[in-house]
Amino acid sequence: MTKTVLITGGSRGIGRATARLLGALGWSVGVNYANNRAAAEATAAEVERAGGHALPIAGDVASETDVIALFDTLQQAYGRIDALVNNAGIVAPSSQLADMDLARLKRMFDVNVLGAYLCAREAARRMSTARGGAGGVIVNVSSAAARLGSPNEYVDYAGSKGAVDTLTLGLAKELGPQGVRVNAVRPGLIDTEIHASGGKPERAAQLGAATPLGRPGSADEVAQSIVWLLSDAASYVTGALLDVAGGR
Ligand code: NAP
Fold it and tell me: CB–CB of 75/6 below 8 Å?
């Protein structure tokens, strides 16, 4: 049976690579995006070319109204939701905490923490067997920053990902008896546009060279681990934090 997944931030980077791989496995993919409709449409076209189905869906994960609408739209389109890839996330320009203003801190935690919690909540409401659902899988996209702390760059971002790790640990225990597995991947330095949005387009290449594997990772390498965690091959894996960070 065809499975349906919502990928938040599915239009670019790690989300897009995950969408493409799931398309090749025949999945129906909700490609959520914040602003870049053209990128979401391009991703949807890649999913369809790979053999799946795709629906671009606009929505800010920091908005409860948008998050509920995202899930409703996907469920109406495909009749079911089997999985969530809780992937949308932002960084901000490198800075010390002492120089961060309130607006930056609020937005960081609104998108990366509140957004992840709201999406996980909606998935739990719809997938939990205790609430009439058929079970499912959640993969949260955290970061190696959660254990590194990211001093002088973005301790706000690192802390937001620490919350995502803790969400993963708690929700896996809460939802295990209700047919839902919950895991996280913690990417390291991955070659996507997120670094440019933080003002350092070359960051992954420069810092990646100093990692044990000597290079940045690709979005596809992270997507492969997400797809594995979504699959039945990972049927006994829940509450895991999987580092995909080249040994960093
Ligand atoms: P990216 O290339 O910058 O893509 C970000 C995606 O998130 C885009 O699809 C963007 O939509 C979407 N997005 C941003 N804010 C959103 C919001 N408020 N609501 C809904 N969607 C939103 O990022 P990436 O590198 O693939 O990162 C994906 C995840 O991996 C993030 O959680 C990030 O923290 C994590 N991560 C990345 C790295 C890395 O080195 N790249 C390392 C560790 C962890 P638009 O296209 O509309 O802007």
Answer: no
Per the structure block, which two tokens stand in for 241?
């934090």
CA of 8 to the centre of ligand 1 (A): 8
Pocket, ligand 1, Cβ cutoff 6 A = 8-9, 11-15, 32-36, 39, 60-62, 87-90, 111, 115, 141, 143, 187, 189-190, 192-194, 197, 204
Q: Which domains does the chain have, with CATH numbers?
A: 4-244 (3.40.50.720)
How far apart, in whole angstroms, are the C-alpha atoms of residue 48 and residue 38? 15
Q: What is the pTM of this model?
A: 0.99
Question: For residue 181, which of 228, 138, 128 has the smallest C-alpha distance?
Answer: 138
Question: Looking at ligand 1, which atom is closest to the CA of residue 10?
Answer: 9
* Distance, CA of 66 to CA of 151 (rounded, Å): 33
Model confidence at 10, pLDDT cuts 50, 70, 90, reads: very high
Neighbours of 173 (CB within 10 A): 11
Coil, helix or strand at residue 42: helix
Q: Spell out the residues 6+ positions from residue 124 whose beta carbon is closer than 8 angstroms to its own.
A: 131, 138, 171, 174, 175, 178, 180
- pLDDT of residue 1 exceeding 90, the answer is no
Annotated active-site residue 78? The verdict is no
Cβ–Cβ < 8 Å for 105, 160: no
Say how many Å lie between the CA of residue 126 and the centre of ligand 1: 24
Protein residue closest via CA to atom 2 of ligand 1: 13
